[in-house]
Specification:
By secondary structure, the chain is an alpha+beta fold. The chain has one domain: 3-Layer(aba) Sandwich (Protein Transport Mog1p, Chain A), CATH 3.40.1000. The chain has two helices and seven strands, in the order E-E-H-E-E-E-E-E-H. Strands 1, 2, 3, 4, 5, 6 and 7 form a seven-stranded antiparallel sheet that branches. A hairpin with a 2-residue loop joins strand 4 and strand 5. The longest helix has 13 residues. The chain starts with 7 loop residues before the first strand and ends in a 12-residue tail after the last helix.
Length: about 130
């Protein structure tokens, strides 16, 4: 029926299978029905909670920021995961759109690589009706 209690992975791209190499990076887009989120949360609170779920492991660094891009209002959260000498960096952009939480998750093994791929969020636009 299209309703689940799990995340819906819409797109997942990675630079390669070895996530330990220094130039590895990935992008994922995931959604979740807004009505399934715990009651009483504002859209911002639900977005922040969903961002943590999308990020999975790792620790949140800093406070989430509110960012307006095109027609979208995002909550942006940053995360780090330390694996020995390697630090994975992630930035998750989450919004509520048409009854769904929608997250764009960017991750990389260097801040330079992360900043390069995060720039692609600036090109996101709503689909035009046919």
């Amino acid at each position: 029926m299209g309703k689940t209690s799990t995340l819906n992975l819409l797109l997942s791209l990675a630079s390669g299978p070895d996530d330990k190499v220094s130039d590895w990076h990935s992008i994922a887009i995931q959604s979740y029905p807004r009505e399934k989120m715990a009651g009483g949360l504002t859209d911002r609170e639900a977005s922040r909670f969903f961002s943590r779920t999308v990020a999975g492991v790792g620790s949140e660094t800093g406070q989430p920021a509110d960012v307006h891009i095109g027609d979208f209002d995002f909550v942006v959260s940053t995360f780090e995961l330390h694996e020995g000498q390697l630090t994975k960096h992630a930035r998750v952009y989450t919004t509520v759109r048409k009854g769904a939480l929608l997250s764009f998750a960017f991750s990389a093994n260097s801040l330079d690589a992360l900043n390069r791929i995060v720039d692609s969020i600036k090109s996101v636009q709503p689909a035009k009706p046919n």
